[in-house]
Amino acid sequence: MNPWEEGPAGRALAFFYDICRIPRGSGNEKAVADYVLAVAERLGLWAHRDEAGNVYVKKPGSPGKKDHPAILFQSHLDMVCEKDDNVDHDFLKDPIDFYVDGEWLKARGTSLGADDGTGVAFMLAILENNEVAMPPVECLFTVEEETGLIGAGRIETKHIDARRMVNLDCGPEGVFLASCAGGMTGTLQKPVRMEPVQGRTVKIKVDGLMGGHSGSRIHWGLGNAIKILTRALRALDAQIGIRLCGLEGGGKDNAIPRICGATVALADDGSRLDALLKELSDGLRAELIPEDQAGFTLTYEEAKAESMFSAEDSDAILDLLQLFPNGVMAQQKDNPVPVVTSINLANVSVKGGAFVAQYSIRSNIESLKEEVAAAVRTLAGRMDADIEEANGYPGWSFAPHSEIRKLCVEVYERFTGLKAAVEGVHAGLECGLIQQKIPDMDIVGTGSTATGAHSTKESMNLPSFERTYGFLLELLKTL
Fold this sequence. Notes:
Elements: H1 10-20, H2 30-43, E1 46-49, E2 55-59, E3 71-76, E4 98-101, E5 104-107, H3 114-128, E6 137-142, E7 164-167, E8 175-180, E9 182-191, E10 194-196, E11 201-207, E12 212-213, H4 225-239, E13 242-250, E14 255-256, E15 260-266, H5 273-287, H6 290-293, E16 297-302, E17 307-309, H7 311-323, E18 327-331, E19 339-351, E20 354-363, H8 366-382, E21 386-393, H9 403-416, E22 421-425, H10 431-437, E23 442-445, E24 450-451, E25 459-461, H11 462-478
Parallel strand pairs: 3-6, 3-7, 7-23, 8-22
Antiparallel strand pairs: 1-2, 2-6, 4-5, 5-25, 9-20, 9-21, 10-17, 11-15, 11-16, 12-14, 13-15, 13-19, 18-19, 19-20, 24-25
Helix pairs in contact: 1-3, 4-5, 9-11
């Protein structure tokens, strides 16, 4: 029995409940797409799944509104799959274990998937709602948004008649988005030579950082576990001498790394290791913002390794990580989004005899995005490393005049009695790609309040969810 059938937003919450029970990490959206298609079939609505896996659903207008211009709602089916180290969760088969904490919905030790499960739930509830008179409604559910807006890049525009669109992948509530950053991802690889290990080997680990969305939170000053661990390893190398044996940390390219560990061989017996790590931990913690200080740890444990990097390659990898750009690269005080350009060093590993680093670049200005990408290429060239770039996507440029944005602001303020704001965001949205494919589409972005996207701290505000659904119904009445 679904516990969320009652209340003004009961059906929307019920759909969210169902969605949470369906594994839907990026690239694994078939089951949730099947669910959307089953809802459409139950409602007797036209639906189609394209070759990319995107799903389109169309609902005719209510009596008296069938000939009104259509409205398109859009959200993405996938979620970022993050979990704490001590949590046993298989994102390929396990449902999200969520719970209510006051006014907030949270998950136990994993990301919640409010990004963008809330948008999917709103759209399904709108498709099902026959109590509110509304114009023709079109819904576009895209796939693989979190790994480079891949589904949006392959939409079939012949299935879209509407020329006004509400993207439901935004927030917080009451903020209506009018622009977003473009971006790209990259992978750096550098072969490393291995030698038989010598000396005591330990694993040194940074853990407990907050992490989060590498676009919307990049300016918070959150700690990057990879960069912090690099500083610790550099300091230990200077004090006692170390050789890298292995390195692994970070996660998705659009999440700020929370955890990173390195197995190292010590040049001496390690008798000073405890004291050195305590001193380093205290110093590094003092630099962190309070949100990171609370959980930050720098620890070590005994570890086994059969081989270690050559002295030259161990130094080279530490040099590379120290020099790798990370964080905010450009700001403009008069820009709708203070952060213009950024880069996130997201993931490091050693695979097949090579050191591998993955990163993502975002910018509202295409030329600055290319400048940062060129800087990484230059660094790679100096370090005899290879670069592979992928998933480039355009930004969504600000339109001074937008009828749908203007109407959303008016309806929201009238319906809630709260003040609305128009902003941009330093994150990638599918709006830019959709605008590129349908240039005359009038677009606005909105959503309910949620925090901690792309992290295990992700939470969804239940009163905001209810108000936002009510606002969307009011918008449809007005249209």
